[in-house]
Amino acid sequence: MTGGIGSPLLWRWHITMATSIIHRGSIFGIYLSALLLTGWLLALASGPESYGAYTGALSSPLGLLVLFGLTFTLFFNLAYNVRQAFWDMGKGFKIPEANAGSVAIIAFAVVTTLALWAVLFILGVL
């Protein structure tokens, strides 16, 4: 396989590419979070029946899965933007540093999401 006229293919999958793609998806998740929050506020303003139906949908297994995913996207986006601030200062561009930063971003998002949901479960919120 070649990447152009007679040249070898130089593209290969790497972790920084994965974090870039996940970041774009997390932006969509943040927009979805804003819509869900708006729906929650509208249900709250519409009365007890609407509010009960809305919170019931959010507390269903599918609703909890969506909220779990949105929690991950928020933590991921937070960590990604911290790294982006370092990149804006010209730091962390070497390949080993960029790869380590990408691993740290994903690890941070996974650990903080699981920790938050564990605390919510322990407190009886879920």
Tags for this model:
79% helix, 4 helices, 3 helical TM bundles of succinate and fumarate reductases, 126 residues, mainly alpha
What do you see in this structure?
With 126 residues, the chain is mainly alpha-helical. The chain has one domain: 3 helical TM bundles of succinate and fumarate reductases. It contains 4 helices and no strands. Helix 1 (15-46) packs antiparallel against helix 2 (48-58), helix 1 runs parallel beside helix 4 (95-122) and helix 3 (61-88) runs antiparallel to helix 4 (95-122). The longest helix is centred in the N-terminal third of the chain and has 32 residues, at 15-46.
Give a short synopsis of this structure.
79% of the residues lie in helices and 0% in strands. By secondary structure, the protein is mainly alpha-helical.
